[in-house]
Amino acid sequence: MRKEDSPVLLEQIPVGTAWAGHKVNFALLTTPPRQYAGYYNAERQLVIATRTLPSPDWEYRKLDTAVGWDSHNTIQLFCDSTGCLHIAANMHASPLLYFQMKRPHDLASIEQVGSLIGNCEERCTYPRFLTGPAGEMIFHYRYGASGCGNEIYNVYDAQTGRWSRLLDQPLTSGNGRMNAYFFGPVAGPDGFYHLAWVWRDNGDCATNHDLCYARSRDLRHWENSAGTPLSLPMTSDSPGIVVLPTAPRGSGLINMCGSIGFDGGKRPILSFHLYDRDGASRIFTLRLNPNGQHQLVPHGNWPKAERWEFSGGGSIRQMVFAPPVRFQPDGTLLQDFEFVGRKSGCWLLDPVTLKTRETLPPRTTCPAGLQTMEQSFPGLIRNWLPDAGCSGEPGVSWFLRWETLPANRDQPRQPPLPEPTRLTVCKVKLPE
Questions:
Q1: Cβ atoms of 323 and 333 closer than 8 Å
Q2: CA neighbours within 13 Å on the CB side: how many for 246?
Q3: How many CB atoms lie within 10 A of CB 394?
Q4: What is the pTM of this model?
Q5: pLDDT in tens, 214-238
């Protein structure tokens, strides 16, 4: 990689010390002039930190919840239109855990909210915030458990401070036999929100199957890739939603490796992990066309001996990454990839056939000086989390950096454990 193609560290600011015994995703949200970080501290307690840019001085608020060993229990942050922070965290098939500021930018005003709507809040997982088509704040989560869950969408009125259901029905339902694991929704360049998912039958991650897709202009009314309206909740029997029918259980589909990008014609391209005919791990791209003639193309040539084998329950370590395809000004497409500890790089894709033209060096957003581990404890990994907000400066992004042991299928580890990690925010100038 040329020097001019490398990210440049502009600033690194310590936030605090954080739990390092297992990976669980923290949160970073920049809404100038404020920046917020959510993390589990050395004692595993949930902490919200904020500062006024560009000051390096943080304010802190500890909240009354602590993470156990479950890597599902991520932290999610969102600022509503009044400047009040909303926090959802530390839940996996457990009661909704939600906090909210009552006064803009005031950590002291954060209070726990017992209920948003009053039902379907007893077994919540995968909380996510989303900006709706009219700028409204939307909050969605899975209600139920793996293999038996529905996707619930709520919308917030910042003026009245009240929640209501965005959808009268769940977005998806497995009818008690399966549940959907999502990539998205992603707001596309064509005015649609795009959503892809796999169905899973139970807690065993090898039971993922049938890659599906739907789109919506308003997150209320949904249609398949041909434009046929779909009734809600979408189920495994909804017409035209399965875009990869030759992906049964055990075929290598997994919910943690999937993304949605777009080509020069604004058509969605799904990227995901799947086993090829020889049983080897491959990254596939699937371009969706309105006529149903979707283009499925494999990439890479990895031997079967290096296949990513996964099964069982609990959080597993992700070994293959396939971020969204990136459209280039010359019409070509770039597909970044990584097989942890084995291969990484970027495939240059032909815009017509989607086939690999060339393999380029890996692209990274992490400056070289931050890739070196600070602790020497065996097995530690570097976590590099992008900002969920916006820096307000072209070509500049913020990231959260910390070190942990990887996920451990949500089971406790026995001592010795690593020392608490140094948590920092990093301001990075990205290559053009």
A1: no
A2: 8
A3: 7
A4: 0.95
A5: 999 999 999 999 999 999 999 999 9
